[in-house]
Amino acid sequence: MACEAGTSHRNPLVNHYSIRLPDNSPHLNCLNMAMETALLGCALPLVIQKLQEMLILKGFRVQTVTDRTTIILAYQDGNWFRKPKQVVLELSPVDDAITRVDVTAIIETKKKDPEAEEVIEERIVSAIYQNFKPTIETRYGI
């Protein structure tokens, strides 16, 4: 199935949800946090599968929660050089062939660093577009 990538834009509004990961990581609270948005020309089931594979390859532990919208929670442990981080991907179908992905990053530190979280969000959105790019190229023969 072919997919098309859209454009990314900043959206300061986030729905509130609160979920605990199975490894007892800190409680997520995503109220009024900034996020990045990606639009993909794929059906929701294919997007879920490809995003889970991409996040696992990047070293994240992944959990999918399906309610009114599909939420993918990804957690990456910290080490000497990086802080533990959580990435929340909220997936919602725009129509049958277009899926919206809202990406929110949370770095677990005592100090809030919104700039670092924004950089992680931008990198995840960039990786999403790179992950879906080969499908676009084969569809149009580029």
Question: What does the model show?
Answer:
29% of the residues lie in helices and 30% in strands. The chain has 142 residues and is an alpha+beta fold. The protein has a single domain, classed as Kinase associated domain 1, KA1 (TATA-Binding Protein). The radius of gyration is 15 Å and the shape is globular.
How do the helices and strands line up, and which of them pair or pack?
Blueprint: E1 9-11, E2 35-40, H1 44-57, E3 61-66, E4 70-76, E5 85-95, E6 98-107, H2 114-140
Antiparallel strand pairs: 1-2, 2-6, 3-4, 4-5, 5-6
Entry summary:
A 6-stranded antiparallel sheet has the order 1-2-6-5-4-3, with helices on one face. It has 142 residues and is an alpha+beta fold.
As a percent range, the share of strand residues is: 25-35%
Q: Give the rounded overall mean pLDDT.
A: 75
**Gyration radius, to the nearest Å?**
15 Å
Structure summary, number of beta strands? 6
CATH class: Alpha Beta
Work out the count of structural domains. 1
Elements, N to C (H/E): EEHEEEEH
What's the tally of helices?
Answer: 2
Low-confidence segments, ≥5 residues, pLDDT <50?
7-32
Q: Helix share of residues?
A: 25-40%
CATH 2nd-level architecture? 2-Layer Sandwich
